[in-house]
Every structure is written in C-alpha cells, then in structure tokens.
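Re: that chain you flagged

S.,

Sorry for the slow reply, it's been a week of failed gels. I finally had a moment to sit down with the sequence you sent. For the record, here it is as I used it:
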Amino acid sequence: RAVVVAEVPPDGVIAGGSYARKQIFSKDHLIAWSHRQRFEMALDLASQFAGKQLLDYGCGDGTFLGMRARRADPPAFALGAEIDNGLGADCRRRFENLATLEFVHVDQLEKHRLAGSFDAVFCMEVLEHVLDPEDREDPVLPRHGLGDERRDLPVRDVAVQVQVGDVQEEP
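Prediction finished late last night. Pasting the structure tokens below so you have them in one place:
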C-alpha cells in the first residue's frame, strides 16, 4: 500500500529549512503527509489572527511562520523565538525579504519591542521540549509578551489530534 499525497510545490525559502526538508517535503510520503496535515491544521487555526501579532515559541526553522506569512490572510507581524542560535540565524537569513517576520533568541523575548502585545502564541511541535513530564502540577509556559499583566499561560488541552484518513493505493 502506498499513501497518496497531494503535491505541494516546494517554496525554495521554506523548503530550505532543515525541518521542512525532512518533514513536510520528505520523500517518505507518510512522513510528508503527516507533517503537512498538522501544519495545515495549525495554519487554518492561525487564520483567525490575520492582521494580528503572532509569536511562534520554539519556531525551529521558521516553516510555520514562513507558510503563514505567504497566505492570503497573513499576520500583521510574526515573531519567531528559538533557543538554537544556528536555527535562528538561518531563519533570519532565509526570511530576510519578509518584512513582517522577525526571529530572535528566546532570551530576547521579554525585551522585544512587542513584549506584552502578542495576540496569539503558537508552539509547533515544541511543548514536549519545554514541559517537565514529572511535574504533577498544571504545567505552564513562561509568559513572554502576552497581555498587560505578568502571568503564566496554563498549558491544558493543547494537543491536537490528527485523524488518519483512508490510505489509498497508487495504481
């Protein structure tokens, strides 16, 4: 059995990302399909923040923000925050022509000019890296620039279940 995947033309800037290459644009059709489905769901959810300010906490190679910025209803501004200096530098280089995107190290978030004014925070495949699985209390993400008051954001019910559809055989 083979999985039929709708072809997504690779955008050179987005496809140049290390995660995009091995996930969304993977030659393994099941891996590509699985990651595309999750990204499409998140991109659709993010459309409600068109014209707003977004934060992608743990942005990785910038794939999510790059794809969101190229939609018909992009955010007014999007900030990607990443702990890996190499990934952050690569994002700044690859997306330098998109004026509505900026990439910083996570340590720079609280001092960013938009701290306190993001309309939404996205964490694409990152929560498993910032939450302590042994913590029996409600896990929280550090508040990085949301709202007017200093507060933590409770992380509950954030898992998005992606249903696997029928697998079709290729002729």
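What I noticed first: Residues 60 and 82 are 6 Å apart (CA to CA).

Talk soon,
D.
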